Amino acid sequence: MIRILRLISRSLAGKFLALATMFLVVPAILYVKFADTDAERQAFLLHSLQVEGRLAAEVLEPVLNRAGGRALLDAAKTVQDLAIDQVHVKLLLRPAGRGDAFFLVAASPAIETADLDRERQRLDQTGVLSRLDASCAGTGPLAVQYAGTSGKDELLTSMSPLHTSAGCWVILTSYGLDDLAGSSLSRPFSEAPEVRLAMLLYALIAVLTAMAVVGTLIDLRSFAKLAKRIRQGGQADNETFAQVAAIPELIPVAGEFDRMVATLDASARAMREAAEDNAHAFKGPIAAMTQSIEPLRQTAGDDPRARQALEVLEHALDRLTSLVQGARRLDEAAAALINARLQSVDMARLSDDMAKAFQRIHAAEGVTIQAKGAKSAYVVATEESLETVLENLLDNAIGFSPPGGTVTLTVDALPSKVRLTVEDEGPGVPPDQLDSIFRRNFSYRPNDRRPKSQAHFGIGLAVVRRTVEVLGGRVHAENIAGAGLRIEIVLPAA
Q1: Which enzyme class, named as a word (predicted)?
Q2: Fewest C-beta atoms under 10 Å: which of 52, 178, 391, 406?
């Protein structure tokens, strides 16, 4: 759980998913709470309206209990007097001995005589009158909607039956749906104007938030694609980060990326130029010293001290020449990788080809070179850079291997990575110097079988480390139990 929270807190996509979840969950929770509150409010309002209906029935009850024809006139007048605020009152009578037929006796507001029968029929269609049994007893509270003859919908809120000698009286109270009370009771909570306005504003906020996050993600993906093209040397039409940035706030960041790319390009050019300039600068003095040795050798004759001094001088010149060439190789290799066109390269195939080529070249030395492991394992690099790495690793391993020894190249395809291992059967390296063998100009060769003309001066493994690190990988060395050295390289898989 902690790991998930840490991932969400660091990831923009994770934060967007969390925000989207909040946008979905919080409104649902609030809607349920507000809907429950609205239901309670409607229940309270309906109860209040029903109380008003019962009060109207209590006012009419003594009038209806009077005997004689005067009772109908007094009841009609009382119904008109009850017409207060928004309440509508209707008085119906089912005469004794007349079956189930009801007659509309009075209404407030008043209804035209021609519409009385239609109003009664519409009330009858609601089914509320059928709830009354023979003793004129039935349900009191109501919440039934119906269309009156006036063309306006009404909401029946209460029905109060009363049995007298004249028959079964029914007092109905209702409210117009265009009135505040009626509209509040008949309208679902989701259709309330304030709820719809809140939902509209909330949806607008959600859309704006989504647009901001999605726009940022799109720009970041555009940055990643352009960075990948630049890394692979495929930047077309001089496209820049500032050109792909659609969000104004990201343009300054894009500008810094463009300046960084320009600085890297300038650094690559400077490294190549410096390597060339240094090589040419040292070439003249070294050539002059080399040419000056021959007259000195003729002058030295048989003097042992003079000949020994000349040998030391020749060896120093050879070392100086190798150092200059090695430094040039190292700088040029690093500069070439800064803006090289990277591609998918099969490390397994290349290792097998290099092993066969070196086996032919070094067959006379009695060293066996073999490649094994995965049949294919692709990495993002240049074939030239990987050839340089393999060449230096094989050259180093062969130089340490005894006659009849074996050098083994193993390629393993790991999840999202490719591992290359080079093993030899040489003497190994002291544990305290394992990290130093990748340093520039460091060389440890206690039993080097090669002539001085092929001496090494600590450039090969330095080139390996710099090349691997530029490609996003890592390299390390370890001694093999018994005898030998193992150098392991891990590169990102394509």
Answers
A1: transferase
A2: 178
